[in-house]
Known about the structure:
Blueprint: E1 2-5, E2 12-16, H1 23-44, H2 47-50, E3 53-61, E4 65-72, E5 77-83, H3 91-109, H4 123-136
Helix pairs in contact: 3-4
Amino acid sequence: SVLCSAPVQNYPLYIRSIPTENELKFHYTVHTSLDVVDEKISAMGKALVDQRELYLGLLYPTEDYKVYGYVTNSKVKFVMVVDSSNTALRDNEIRSMFRKLHNSYTDIMCNPFYNPGDRIHSRAFDTMVNSMMMQVC
C-alpha cells in the first residue's frame, strides 16, 4: 500500500494497494501511521529543516505488516506498508523506492495543469507505483 498525504491536513493525495481485498485494513493502517510520522517529525524538530528529504525508516511493525515513512522538504508524507513475510526487502531498497516515489511526485508537481493539493490522477505515476509494487510482491 502506498499513500501520498498533503502536508498539514493529512488527507490522501494518492492511495494504491495490492491485493485489493484488504484495502480497508490498509487504509486504516496507513492513517494510523500518519500519527507516528507526525510524532517523529516533531521529535526531530529543527534537524528536519536542515535536511532536503527525510527517510523516517520503519514507523512500526505489526504481526502482518511493516510500515515505513518518508517526508519531503515540502512536508508531503509518503507511507508504505509491506508484508512482514517479505524478508528480501532491505532498508536500502525501501529508501530507493521512496526516492522513486518522490521523483515521480516532483514530476507531477512540475505539471502546469496540476493544482497542488488535488488528488493525483497521473498515468505515469500509476505505472511507476504498479511496477514498484509488482517488484515487491
